Amino acid sequence: MEKKNIFVRIQEIESQMGHMHSELGELKLVIKELLEDNHRLSLENEQLRKVFKREVQSADSETTFPLQPTLVKNEESGEDVVGEGYDNLARLYHEGFHICNVYYGHLRTEGDCLFCLSFLNK
Ligand SMILES: [Zn+2]
Prior knowledge:
two-stranded antiparallel ribbon
């Protein structure tokens, strides 16, 4: 094998290794994101199970699914107003979930949400 050939091959291998190195870096980022997602979803799932378990235990008198807002016709104006569903949503919010249409149903991980609060204050 000629000397020149060896250098060419070493350069090829070197660039392949560089390529693999950057691919590894990208994969590590993907794994990190997946782990974060998994952690967030686990927390959310755990919290939802607690809420659901309690709702099932106290659902005897309720006929509607408790997590859905119930719209009630206002007799005078004829407009739809939020009825008892409002209380459920407020409770859901205080249990740590978003009730805004931006992040609805997701666990609140960073304290109060302005979207949720403006919804509650309507
Ligand atoms: Zn929100």
